[in-house]
Amino acid sequence: MDRIVTNLGSVTLSDTQHQVLSKGRNFVPTPKQVPPLDIIASVEHSLTSLERSKAAEIRGAITTPLSHRATKCSSTLTITERQELKDHKH
Prior knowledge:
mainly alpha
């Protein structure tokens, strides 16, 4: 569902800029790849309260697939929208 975008500036928005802004303030683009080290660190922190054997089992199930390949994500932005964000980041 596209949201209404009200342009309060003096610069006219391109169609791509309008599309990106209509995704809403809470929209967050997905990264190009899953950050495996961040996920592993987060899991490690969560496992501190578990029994050692259970923690080791979960650790193995999570870290093995992440450490053997770069996991790509499906993008929530088109290439044009991603480029538009990059161009107007500053």
